[in-house]
Amino acid sequence: MHKSNRIYGWLVLTVMLAFVSSMAWAGTKSELVVAAWGDPYEVEWRKSIVPAFEKKFGVRILWDVGYSTQTLAKLQAQRANPQIDVALFDIGPQELARRQGLIARLDPKIVTNLADMHKSARLPNDEGVAFGLAGTVLYYNSRVFKDKGWSPPTSWLDVWDPRYKGHVLIHSITNGNGLNFVLAVNKILGGSEQDITPGLNKIKTLVAHVITFDKVNDTPALVQQGEAWIGTWGVERIANMAGTGVPVAMAMPKEGAVSLHATANVVKGAPNERLAQEFVNMMIAQDQQEFNAKFVGYGPLNVKVRLDPDTAKKVIYGEAVDRVIHPNWKIVNDSRAQWTERWNKEVESK
């Protein structure tokens, strides 16, 4: 074969191989699957991180909606063949996922914003990162309290005030906010994560005051209808609902909020692991952290963030961060099934 023909042949072969390789890469990276909560979280992130990420990396983000426990169940079911790239879920289920080897280690060369994160955001072995300081606090109906001339609640134990009887809404222990309420009351009464009897015994006396123990997201409707005057909820949910004009306000208990960190995780064996690492890096960047605080209700964990006064009042930020109660999630997860059984028998069956 003539030398020029050989060169031409090699060039054609090289171009074809490059084309095939690029098509294979394009097929791999054309979609990034993010498993996370739905609205109001999704609707806000579709205004910020989703379009920004899609534009920067030329991919489409598929949003796989589910509660934290549902996301964990999907990861467990897909262990042998993961279909999810990024998992956003609460710290409790995340701790289980880490122990079960479902979370990949973050690469600091890609997730460069890790260096700016608060120490409480860094998870063991950098298998995931907490990107939002959420937590369970009290909420109250600001219109009702104003009309009756009542001061906002200041303690977890204020929900026992007889003035609120028939208008208290507490989450079930099967919900993270209900679990946190049990842990907070239990700690106040001298209990521990090894023994929640003091907390359960106290909550038994609240049953007659409660409209319902929320298991399926009854809180928004009952707050809007004016039936729920006081109760437990996530700080970000209160901020989101208040932003729609509903007369609901956050009350930070003097004993401290109970943390419910939101975490961002790369799934081990993810189809698009590098892109997943890039997504996590963007979620913990300073500008996205500021957006999350202002529009999603998550306290920032990137130490470079400085919030405006109005936003700072709506999230866990500043001095309130130092009063946050951090459960030992290994103990909690190991005990939760037993606690739920006790709750069903001793509290909700009453």
Structural features, described:
The structure is a single chain. The chain is an alpha/beta fold. It has 2 domains: 3-133 and 261-316, D-Maltodextrin-Binding Protein, domain 2, CATH 3.40.190; 135-259 and 325-348, 3-Layer(aba) Sandwich (D-Maltodextrin-Binding Protein, domain 2). The chain is globular, with a radius of gyration of 23 Å. Residues 2-28 have low confidence and may be disordered. It contains 14 helices and 11 strands. Strands 5, 6, 7, 8, 9 and 10 form a 6-stranded mixed sheet that branches. A 5-stranded mixed sheet has the order 2-1-3-11-4, sandwiched between helices. The chain has helices at residues 3-29, 41-45, 49-57, 68-77, 91-99, 142-148, 176-188, 197-204, 219-224, 235-242, 273-283, 286-296, 309-312, 329-348, and strands spanning 31-36, 60-65, 86-90, 129-132, 135-141, 168-171, 210-214, 230-234, 248-251, 258-259, 262-266. α8 runs parallel beside α14.
Taken as a percent bin, the fraction of beta residues is 15-25%
**CATH architecture level-2 label of the largest domain:** 3-Layer(aba) Sandwich
Q: Give Rg in angstroms.
A: 23 Å
What is CATH's topology name of the largest domain? D-Maltodextrin-Binding Protein, domain 2
Order of helices and strands: HEHHEHEHEEHEHHEHEHEEEHHHH
Q: What is the number of independent domains?
A: 2
Number of helices: 14
* Principal-axis shape: globular
Q: Could you give the distance between the termini?
A: 91 Å
Average pLDDT score: 89
CATH-assigned homologous superfamily of the largest domain: Periplasmic binding protein-like II
For the largest beta-sheet, the strand count, sense and barrel status come to: 6 strands, mixed
What is the CATH class designation of the largest domain? Alpha Beta
**Strand elements, count:** 11
Low-confidence stretches: 2-28
